[in-house]
Amino acid sequence: xxxxxxxxxxxxxxxxxxxxxxxxxxxxxxxxxxxxxxxxxxxxxxxxxxxxxxxxxxxxxxxxxxxxxxxxxxxxxxxxxxxxxxxxxxxxxxxxxxxxxxxxxxxxxxxxxxxxxxxxxxxxxxxxxxxxxxxxxxxxxxxxxxxxxxxxxxxxxxxxxxxxxxxxxxxxxxxxxxxxxxxxxxxxxxxxxxxxxxxxxxxxxxxxxxxxxxxxxxxxxxxxxxxxxxxxxxxxxxxxxxxxxxxxxxxxxxxxxxxxxxxxxxxxxxxxxxxxxxxxxxxxxxxxxxxxxxxxxxxxxxxxxxxxxxxxxxxxxxxxxxxxxxxxxxxxxxxxxxxxxxxxxxxxxxxxxxxxxxxxxxxxxxxxxxxxxxxxxxxxx
Amino acid sequence: xxxxxxxxxxxxxxxxxxxxxxxxxxxxxxxxxxxxxxxxxxxxxxxxxxxxxxxxxxxxxxxxxxxxxxxxxxxxxxxxxxxxxxxxxxxxxxxxxxxxxxxxxxxxxxxxxxxxxxxxxxxxxxxxxxxxxxxxxxxxxxxxxxxxxxxxxxxxxxxxxxxxxxxxxxxxxxxxxxxxxxxxxxxxxxxxxxxxxxxxxxxxxxxxxxxxxxxxxxxxxxxxxxxxxxxxxxxxxxxxxxxxxxxxxxxxxxxxxxxxxxxxxxxxxxxxxxxxxxxxxxxxxxxxxxxxxxxxxxxxxxxxxxxxxxxxxxxxxxxxxxxxxxxxxxxxxxxxxxxxxxxxxxxxxxxxxxxxxxxxxxxxxxxxxxxxxxxxxxxxxxxxxxxxxxxxxxxxxxxxxxxxxxxxxxxxxxxxxxxxxxxxxxxxxxxxxxxxxxxxxxxxxxxxxxxxxxxxxxxxxxx
Lengths: 381, 463
Fold this sequence. Notes:
The complex is a heterodimer.
Chain A: H1 2-33, E1 40-42, H2 43-66, H3 72-79, H4 85-92, H5 97-129, E2 133-135, H6 143-153, H7 167-173, H8 185-188, H9 191-230, E3 248-249, E4 257-260, H10 266-276, E5 280-283, H11 288-293, E6 303-308, H12 315-324, H13 327-331, E7 333-341, E8 349-351, H14 355-369, E9 372-374
Chain B: E1 8-13, H1 19-27, E2 45-51, E3 54-60, H2 67-77, H3 84-93, H4 95-100, H5 102-112, E4 116-122, H6 132-141, E5 145-150, H7 158-165, E6 171-174, H8 182-195, H9 200-234, E7 237-241, H10 244-249, H11 251-276, E8 284-285, E9 296-302, H12 308-329, H13 337-359, E10 361-362, E11 365-366, E12 368-374, H14 382-399, E13 408-409, H15 415-420, H16 424-438, H17 446-461
Parallel strand pairs in B: 1-3, 1-4, 4-5, 5-6, 8-13
Antiparallel strand pairs in B: 2-3, 7-12, 9-12, 10-11
């Protein structure tokens, strides 16, 4: 929000400066073309305003661009604190240095374009409302000396013959104040085409082009920055944590059958067997499938399967249990995930399985085979 | 280079042994789904890792669910070693197998299409012969293979796992995706090239590009820090009012907004830094940015927010311009009298008439008033504080892996240690730059001034 406010404030100030530049441009044209009491306007001074000054400006821009200081003179003015503090502060809040340079470059081209537009409007108004006689004066130069320079200046619009200088035009418009006003009226008015072409070529066209490029780059970069900031990688939905958990017990009927799928150490396994008072222990069956087929369920009230708590339940275990046990037998099935530690010189002892592991097995009991979870850790010996 | 000839590694193993974590750490992608629940990965998912013009692919796969039965099926379809690869090909293409062994088909398919094998086990738990069926299946594939022992909780059983795994795999490495810095990752990439020499050129290019990418990231981080410093050190809030008392009443409002927005600027910079290091889902926490001192002030303004001095200067320039037009019109014979007079008249008139202008109204709107301001911070230490916090995050990101999903707590980096490692001229340039920043002056080429500091930090991190 602050960013938007700043941008709007910056734009308002910028428009104000552009307006001032436009008025200055207009006044400069009017002043340059006012002439003396005979309506005579110094061609060379007009040329200075409409061709030489813009050409130097373009050269300065090119130099700053090649040095990598896109904001050029405008940046220097900001640095020298000539600009209003508010403008400098607003500018400072526009992203990083590179972004600020882009903004300043775009704004300064806009201001220069406004000045040029003011120039052109003043030029047009003066041509419409005044009878301007363009003359030139020089103590040192002759028409033949000046012609090559003007020809060089007019090279870019060589296709426009009416706007080209000629020796005859130059000779006929050279003014000597002592002689009064002997200039040929046919020629003194013709220079406006040359001056217009100079403005179009050295001011309006390049500045418009630079302004468009600067504006385009700024817009593109601003959009990129905005996209970057808004970019978010959508995260996968977490798996639902509300899955059903099987009932958990700590005791089972005596004389059950125990299957050890956990590769439980001998001492620990016999402890567990004693504690549960099981009838039979089947140690680490290689093929659970066939082992389950050989069990006499008629004399066994329940079946206990010991598993390693940290190993996730596999579909293979669920397949075997589902295939070999009836629904009733599954209801008398207990799965006991265990964890243990081995202390040097001592027997292994059970430790409490991690909560995540217990949950994993209880989910398995509920969803895969509909059996009961047996917690051996903490159960009474 | 076609997609199939580019290096491809299928990360396979028992469920919940950290396969996805390994993919996230190696791919440096924190959007890889990791869960403490088994069976999270249901389909093989390929992550193409592009590092400039080099790339390789890691394929995250579901864990083995029916290894013994799958091996039994394979044994029925291959009576001798020469038929094993064909049996695997038949297994992955069979509709019956896809129905009976969906997980095994999903994980073996990329391997049968040419991917090398990265087999992952948990080194914190004892070896279990139940794993032998799946290792046997992988051996049948006949593809280049490597085992990674992931010490999820501890390294208690690494030795026994190494002994067992070396019988099935040519290369066995210990790799903890939660602690894997760039050197560890590079070691694994080097091991990839060992198991699959035909991919060495591409993998070496990836490694070289990773090194280059690290350097580019430091440069980009320097630019981001420079932007952030410039923004935070010059940040100011202002509000125009009609009277001084109204302006002073705004103090608490502006103060609160200033703190919130300064912190928002810093948060945005931290988010961009995380994104620079490919952390797009990482949550972090940090103590609030300390902003000290009374930064509130009020000042009179006249027209367009300019103060008396600025308004007089603007008027003088405009007056000089107008007068200069007169000078041009006279062909210079006025000897710049126009410009001088214009500047003096306009500037002087505005200076002395500023109060009157401020009191006047145009269409009911006042031309002047007071401005309440908060900021910018002029504290000399402020740029150091911002930099310390930024480098704290940078350091944490460089030490972190994309497999971690916990909240990152950012602590200030010990800035002085890093500054001490700089050369004398670099230290001076940094001090001068920070001084200019705290005086709200523009610093030329701030990113390059900051770069040695970031490089020093980076070197200390990986020492």
